[in-house]
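Changelog-adjacent note: as of this version, every example in the card shows the full chain rather than a window. The one below runs 325 residues end to end.
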Amino acid sequence: MAIYQRMLESPGASDAEVRAYVLSEIADINIERGMYGDAVTKSREAIALLRQAHKEHTGMFAVAKRVLADGLYAQGYYEQAKEIARQALLLGRQTLDTQSPDYAFVLVTLAQVQKELGKLGQAERLCQSAFQILQRSEGAHQVDLAMAYENIANLQLLRGHAREALTTIDLALAVWSQVPPPEHPSVVYALCTKLVVCAKLKAFRQGEELVPRLLALGESLLGPIHPERVILLNNVAAFYVAAKKYGDAEPMLREAAEIAQHQLAAGHPITRKTLLNYAYVLARLNREDEAKQVRAESDVVRASPSRGVLADPTRAEPVDRRDRR
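Full-length structure tokens:
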């Protein structure tokens, strides 16, 4: 971030496309840091600069649109994100090399939004196309391939193909083991996906072995209040629920709900899903008064402007992480 800030102050950053590139990179970093509002602001600034310079029909404009869609998606504005991602893809087909990593990332952005909106077949096809591009591209990094494997594993899992997802996520982890630094933050996401797979396959002993490392890495690499920890804690809780260990699930969801209410924008679908999961576990622990209070809090979230698909309140479920490129 410090390097990009210095670039903005350099003489070369007076060029609209250079400046837009730097702003888009800053926006991407802000998404990784969990600062989603700042990411949206920076990507909109990049788009405005390109418009002022009459550079709307450029690859850089497509990239800036993709980053804006990522930021909106992270904030829970799925329908808006889908439209922006669709625009980025249409423009990218005309202005980007369709065999380049940049084009693959545009495909992934649209895929992740389609996934949240329940279009799993479309999402998986987009992710498979992106993966094939990254496999063939000399400009692709091992990090990109590992994330591509993880995206596909998430979709295989959602489509009920848990054994296929286990094979794919193990491929992702094998790639991560070769990527410096040894503990890349995205390893947390891959381990989180593997834990959900273990729950689906009822591989509880294997899952129990993953949990301590997953929780430790999540806090040390992401930070204690990073919004992605809401998803991590939900998925650990869902694993414990599948194993009928409701007492172990309860503190996970209590912490997840607290982070969500402070770090996610009002009305975010993940906040409501977290509260519903928490209420379910409290009810299972015969703490019905507390469960009713938490359900009431989830109704307040539901009353906020609709952003996407909401949860089924009758059971505790895993929460999909925001797939990153």
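Structural remarks: The first helix runs from residue 2 to 8.
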